[in-house]
Design a protein that fits this description.
5 strands, about 130 residues, 2 domains, elongated, 5-stranded mixed sheet, Ubiquitin-like (UB roll), alpha+beta
Length: about 130
């Protein structure tokens, strides 16, 4: 059974139990019913953690941070770069900063290359690592 189907079945069972308990005259049972309803309404990922894309590693100087690849892929290139700069405290940097990436696909070089932020959404799935350069 797929992960999303399993979580859907668990959520449906919890909703049924929550409905029954919420109708109880016992206040403790009603409270448990509300808690179960909150659990059942939790949005579950459609993919188990092992099949989700790996995080994006970003380095600046001697510091490296990990950012969510899905989260970064939903942003425009400009917003993604601002977000990355904010994580390193570089929003008010006086020197120009550039974003470079190593890519992970067949035929890609192992060197960092500067990226076109206008094509950010297309590149995110293939980026192995990012770095900020001055």
């Amino acid at each position: 059974m797929a992960f999303s189907n399993l979580m859907s079945n668990i959520s449906n069972t919890a909703r049924d139990m929550a409905s029954s308990l919420s109708l109880s005259e016992n206040q403790v049972a009603q409270g448990i019913g509300e808690s179960l309803r909150a659990f059942a309404d939790t949005p579950w990922s459609s993919e188990p953690p092992s099949t989700q894309p790996p995080p994006l590693l970003v380095e600046f100087g001697k510091r490296t941070i990990a950012l969510g690849r899905k989260h970064m892929g939903k942003m425009s290139g400009k917003n993604a770069f601002l977000y990355v700069k904010s994580k390193f405290g570089l929003l008010n940097a006086s020197t120009p900063l550039h974003l470079q990436a190593k890519f992970n696909f067949e035929g890609s070089s192992t060197e960092y290359v500067e990226i076109d932020l206008e094509a950010w959404e297309e590149m995110v799935p293939y980026i192995q690592k990012l770095r900020i350069m001055t």
